[in-house]
Specification:
alpha/beta; globular; two-stranded antiparallel ribbon; 6 strands; 4-stranded parallel β-sheet; 6 helices
Length: 182
């Protein structure tokens, strides 16, 4: 039996000589400028990408990068097809999926079930840039793009819907997001 090693005693996943990226790449051109052939982890988010600690995916991406992973971001992708989910190529490890800083249904609808005209986490507060139940939709599109790549879902939306729950907007009990996002 091997003796236990401290977690920081392992080699970093990626060579430290490459350093940190000025911003996490959002396109193949930005990946090429960094000398990357692929990303280890691709984070998909319903928010605009701003490299600031108040934006969750920037924080998660920088934390993963500090551990030596090559992290790319797909921010507010067009969810009508799988093509936008292929723009950074196939991730070596997994897709990290989030609806963003807010639940996508709360972000899109008022308490009266009327569609909001603005989105606080989109440039120019433009509404309609993320789908209803964004975690499910983004998971389905990632599966269409690369069926064999694992998905890691997170965010307030995923955590609130991890078990069967009453859905106010459809007025029925829905299954866990873990089942629907397979």
């Amino acid at each position: 039996m091997q003796s236990l090693r401290h977690i920081n005693s392992y080699r970093p996943y990626w060579a430290k000589r490459f350093g940190t990226a000025p911003v996490l790449p959002m396109s193949r051109a930005e990946m090429d400028a960094l000398g990357w052939d692929s990303c280890d982890i691709i984070l998909v988010t319903g928010d605009a990408y701003i490299d600031h600690p108040s934006f969750g995916m920037a924080l998660v991406g920088r934390l993963l990068e500090a551990q030596g992973f090559r992290v790319g971001i797909i921010a507010q992708p067009d969810w009508q097809s799988a093509e936008p989910f292929k723009k950074l190529g196939k991730p070596n490890l997994y897709f990290g999926i989030t609806a963003g800083n807010m639940d996508s249904m709360v972000n899109r609808y008022t308490a009266d079930r009327k569609i909001r005209s603005d989105d606080a986490y989109t440039p120019n507060a433009e509404g309609g840039k993320r789908p209803d139940r964004a975690v499910l939709v983004y998971s389905q599109r990632c599966r269409e793009a690369y069926p064999d790549v694992p998905l890691v879902i997170g965010s307030i939306e995923a955590s609130l819907r991890r078990i069967a729950h009453y859905d106010y907007w459809s007025d029925k009990v829905r299954r866990s997001v873990l089942v629907d996002s397979k």
